[in-house]
Amino acid sequence: MAPLSQNTFAGKVEQALIQRFKPSKIERVITSWRFAELGYEHREFVGDQQSPPITDAATSRCYQYAPSFVPGLKALAWWDNAGDDLVWAKSLSESFESIRDEFTYVMSAPGKLSEGNNVWAGALSTDAESYGEGWKTLVLMNRGQWDESNVQLFPSTSRAIYESGAPVAEAFFASMKPQTSIKPHSDFTNFVLTSHLPLVIPENGSNKCRLSVGDETREWLEGKIILFDTSIYHDAVNDSEEMRYILMLRVWHPDLTKEEIAALQFIYDCLEIPELLSDDPGTVFKAEQRAKMLKGFPLATSQTSGGFGGFEGNKTKGKAKRKKGRK
Fold first, then answer.
1. How deeply is 69 buried, as exposed, middle or buried, from its count of CB atoms within 10 A (0-12, 13-18, 19+)?
2. Mean pLDDT by 10 residues, the chain (327 residues)
3. Which of 124, 142, 231, 266 has the smallest number of CB atoms closer than 10 Å to its CB?
4. Positive or negative: CA dihedral 131, 107, 196, 71
5. Closest C-alpha to 125, from 322, 317, 258, 300
6. How far apart, in whole angstroms, are the C-alpha atoms of residue 94 and residue 197?
């Protein structure tokens, strides 16, 4: 695949990647970036990768759709047996009660939410129409950058995410109104997986709130973390009479190397701070310092008590800008 023109933004990003990283170490990321610029949309039946394998492609929904696509990554609908890759999930699940308690306190405290940023924002692009009006988010981290206002609003939750060691690209609370559903869709990106920590599930255990990924449907259960691939078609429903709330993380795919994650994060940084691509060393230095500050954990040097951290919130989605969706 030919290199991109250095007269374009995409070409400048590619050139910066080659200068900052060893090309042989990030070959898949460079290929992915070129795919996105050329408008490639990856579509594949991935039933044969499931356990047990799904063979009937005609009746299965186990299809991957990923315009933002890194080749060579496993496409499992549900990541139940991720082993050491889920050490962070055990840590986060142990903080479930403190996360839930802090969330319910902030939600019930008069005027508390007004201290936050873009609180319960809905989808702002036609790409996310499948989510409907019943789905909204409260962002803690987007594209590796913490939202300081919302971190201050949810300090215990934010610290739990940070200290869990989760390989987070995005983190946010997500709400779903009663008697609503989210249509089958893909979140466009195969190099992150999605994790849910259910916080408030109406009629918990009664199968009123459900999530389907590929051909399998499961119910959300309070405190039980799930990990799945939203580049595979999925949908959701809240059949109860109350709001459903979860803590949602986007985590880097376990098959990515450290170099590839760093390269993908650099692309995110360039999308947020184009000055990183400047020809002026002073401008680049200032942009690097700004990026470092935005990615630094806001509570790293402070003490908290009681009671957060593609691609969200008021970000619009674009294919070449790493499309994504949310639950």
1. buried
2. 93 97 98 96 98 96 98 96 77 96 94 90 58 82 96 97 96 97 96 97 97 97 96 97 97 97 98 97 97 92 37 36 40
3. 124
4. positive
5. 317
6. 11
Token output for 186? 């893909």
By the 8 A CB rule, do 322 and 67 touch?
A: no
Looking at the DSSP bridge assignments, the partners of residue 176 are: 135, 244
Q: Report the alpha-carbon angle 80-86-88, nearest 5.
A: 145
Q: Report the C-alpha gap between 311 and 327 in whole angstroms.
A: 13
Q: Give the Cα separation of 123 and 118 in Å (integer).
A: 12
Alpha-carbon torsion, ordered 187, 188, 190, 196, to 10 deg:
-10
Please give, one letter per residue, the 3-state secondary structure of the chain.
CCCCCCCCHHHHHHHHHHHHCCHHHCHHHHHHHHHHHHCCCEEEECHHHCCCCCCCCCCCCCEEEECECCCCCCCCCECCCCHHHHHHHHHHHCCHHHHHHHHHHHHHCCCHHHHCCCCCECCCCHHHHHHCCCEEEEEEEECCEECHHHHHHCHHHHHHHHHHCCCEEEEEEEEECCCEEEEEECCCECCEEEEEEEEECCCCCCCCEEEEECCEEEECCCCCCEEECCCECEEEEECCCCCEEEEEEEEECCCCCHHHHHHHHHHHHHHHCHHHHCCCHHHHHHHHHHHHHHHCCCCCCCCCCCCCCCCCCCCCCCHHHCCCCCC
CB of 268 within 8 A of CB of 144? yes
For the chain, give the longest Cα–Cα distance: 60
Instruction: Judge contact between 237 and 219, C-beta under 8 A.
Output: no
